[in-house]
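User: Please predict structures.

Assistant: First:
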Amino acid sequence: MENKVALYIHYPFCVKKCNYCDFLSAPADDDTRIRYLKALGLEIKSYRMPVKSDQGAILPCKDDNCDCSTGIRLPEKLTVDTIYIGGGTPSIMTPGQLAELMDALRNSFDVDPDAEISIECNPGTADLEKLTAFRSLGVNRISIGVQSMNDDELRILGRIHSSSDAIRIIRNAREAGFDNINCDLMSAIPRQTCESWRDTLNKVADFGIEHISAYSLIIEEGTPFYDNCPALPDEDSEREIYYMTKEILSSYGYERYEISNYARPGRECRHNIGYWTGHDYLGLGIGAASLINGRRFTDIRDIRKYISFFENYNYETGIHGIHENIEKLSINDRMEEFMFLGLRMTKGVSTSDFRARFGKTIEEVYGTVIKRQLELGLITDRNDRIALTDYGTDVSNSVMAEYMF
């Protein structure tokens, strides 16, 4: 097993739940947040504790043919090449809390000296002093949830910040020493117009930040928008917004490297690229997903059970009991993910990598699909790579669905 792994750390707390948000997050009192961080620290530390005289953490496994009796055995020290602290709103942590979290991570894992370490941050939750402290703790990439530069749109979304707050935090992040800044932007939102979206793109790109993620709003069940959503842009406006995004960001020097992500050369998000290319990742915290050595599992979602587990933690039995949805991926599962995740990236998937991973050529498995999509102009096949065309990107969901068994 390769010892390289990406870490995702879930901080599930926020100041206020947004009207569109279906993430595992919610406001909480100080006591709950403190107890959760203590439990999270213990989960992190469990990966360097002896378990029944064997070094390294033992992960659960439902496969009777597993090569060890209790599950997937992780090495005593895992080398981490990216860390992503997401939520929720992890920027509501104090610098002291983040310092304890970073100490636990570095004591439990071998973190590459050049590891990309990202934290999500919302305007209105961090000032210059806090951002400077975060940077001093080794966080070298910040992802700011701007969403819009229009105050009316922000109010409808239920965001706690204004456009002036967004401007302030971008400037403060730069002053704090961050030279790798991402801004999340959301299109196709209630009352948005082509003009307001153009204004948002221009205002954010004018700052010269390194990365922009531009996503369309998806109305999810269980959110306030699902039951009562204000009027959305019409289909023609949404389509114009979609094409406008690439045009405007290209004019500022951003390259589209994934369906919804744009970056200056060399500033692509390494952590997310790992997800799209099948890199092993370990999720820590409630609901956090992992993919280790072909096995997928998640931490339990119930925060009370999670906190209780670690408040009564027994190092002798390790971390059994906090994982659920344990699944060994079949070769078909892995091939599907290789295709539909890899095709999200503009450079597409490598045919030689496919053969090296699965022992078959991509034509043996998907030849009929590839032939048809080439004829329709949905994909290209050149220089060892299959990639979506512009037309294929426009209808990417239907294109990728054809690679499902």
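Second:
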Amino acid sequence: MKRFFVVLLTTLMLLSTFVLFSCGKENNDADDANATRMTIDINPSVELMLDTENKVVSVTALNDDGAILIAGEAIVGKSAEEATEIIIQLASDTGYLVDGEENEVKISLSGDADALEAEIKNKINAKLDELDIEGKVTALEAMKLEELRALVLESSTYTEAEVKEMSEGELYDALALSRVESALLLTEDLRNAYFSAKEYDISFTEREETAKIIDEMGTLYEVLNTGYKTLLKAYSEALIAIENYRYDNLIDPECEYQMLLTRMRDAKIELVQKKNELAEMSKDSDEYATELESLEKLEANYQASIEAYESIGQMVNSYIDGLLTELKAIEAELIKLENEFSDDIKSELESKASELEAKMNEYKDSYFEKFKAEHSADIEAIENELLAKKQALIESKNSDKAE
């Protein structure tokens, strides 16, 4: 776990730097952003958030193959060009870039990044030449504004109203902040669990502090506060139920979802291995024709494993959506009651606003530590499995070359 804490310290330092860059500045468009979003898609797909000097502040896997590729890698702090070279080398080492095939590497960069895009293209082409791998580089458009808003909304604790008011530049900076904060969470499921839990936990804790302030105002407000606390208890129980269900059905290594994920990863590894075996064979041989049939079967098996994995994921998330609807109904009742607070309660809450804000900021700052304490074993287990899958791919590629 030593590496875990070293990386955590690094990401928190970078997070603080980004906060300093972002405060006191209004962004009007993407050119004003401190952060640049860069993606590299070889399937694996990876996202890199860059600072104003084009240094990497976060690396995020955009699919499961991407999670395997970046597991255990020290890419944060590298230049965009250095990071690109590392990713292309890793894709070659693991067999995702197949010798003898026309590989395509897709890239995208946000904002006015024509010069950097040209450098990245040159770096990729040079690396492909060095590795003696056929390939082409395709530049894609950056994410559309509404897609970016949706990504920030699901990857942070900003409200829909707050995200709607952000400029494009502010959205990229907000995304960078959230990516740095969740840098140790290598899978999308774990990141979603983190931000969802954080959002509702903060809401509950803030209201709990509100109830304490009303308590201190004396017995005159006891009846009103009892109703408020009853709703808070229901809110807390609903929140716990959601997080328990999410953990039991999406995160727990023994759950069906994780077992299907492992099966999908195994099917993908077999498929990648077979592609690389075929790359070493003569296309005119009888053996090649036989192995080509095997490849088609493996492709069908992989697609079936994806469908099974996605199906259970959709079912679980649909149930969670239902639980969230119930939670939001309780929240609506809390908001209604808060709107009906008497003027003296509102005045007291306003007088304690600075004190409440300080407590909430402290809670927000410590939230990752809380989540880590609850899930450190899961985080480590996920990384270990990804590293094992990655090592299997590397060993298979080396074996094919040796033969």
